[in-house]
Amino acid sequence: MARATRAFLAGPAETLSATARNCTSRVLDEVLTGPVTHVRLRDLMMPVWAEYFYELVFGEPCPRPARDLIVGHANDVVTSLKCTGLRHPARRARLTRYLEQRLADVRHPLPATLSKTEQVHYLQGTYFNTAVVQMSEAMAHLLLALAHHPEVAARLAENPDDDRYFAHVLDETFRLYPLFGIAHRITTADIELDEHTTFPAGLVLCFSYPAYHATGYQNPHEFDPDRWEHTAARHAHHIPFGIAANRPCPAWRLSPIAMRAATKVVLRRVTLHSSVTHTRSLPSRGPCLLVRDGSVPRARLVLMRVRDRWEDVWRSAVQLVLGTAMVLHAHRLRPAGRYFDTHDTQGCPVRH
Question: Which of 37, 65, 97, 308 could pair with 276 as two cysteines, CB 3.0-4.6 Å apart?
Fold first, then answer.
């Protein structure tokens, strides 16, 4: 499966960039209908990455009905994970049926060890769920950070070929707004910390990406791309794609290439303005104004701030209700507990 994933995500940097530019341009052509356009950045970017990964998988432009299926399912997944909406299994089922019909059209061989159903779920989960959601979230954070820091956006727009500075901006975005909050791992053997402390096998350990990314820096809660001029990401507390020696994100190479290309297209066509609160979880989906004439719509920014504060109130209530229901439902089903009733910490079945 890892080899198959690498095959789909590989390619010359210019080809990967050109695909991202074309997909971004097509979506912006649809969205930008006036001098000022109000968008939710995550919603803006989901069609871009739905088209992008469709082309990587099938080697052809994405038809609008297929894009709608992918976006509907991906949005459903991330909305329910943030407890701001319910899951709709019928949306997943429609995408599943579509992919079943297209299995023979993929660009690279799928793992032969998987059944046809598992191959469909592999495509759906890897490219049309995880990839679309994570790239959309990442771009929403990047563009919202640029909207809040116009001097950074202006420098990128004026120097579109300064890949070094873009890398600093991207590193700082991932540092301050990591896509993962808490990672969970189950120990497969005893871990001795010292003579008084041992983590036994089977223990659930939690790791906080935001806390880790906030240590070892001056003014860690400030957005400062220039800090990377004198700090190498590989030597800092900075693991946005996970640990290189332990199954990092397979898109660690592709993501910066594609995001750089998409950002260039956006900054070439609009300026970004937003007055909303920027948090790591971004349940608001990143409200933003895309301005084509270079003006600063101050009145609309004031209205946006008021609306954002009001939405925080009702959204928090929705998250409380849906989050509580999700926890109670999981507690009743015990999916992890039932799994480890029949498997050991290595994932091997246990005979009773």
Answer: 308
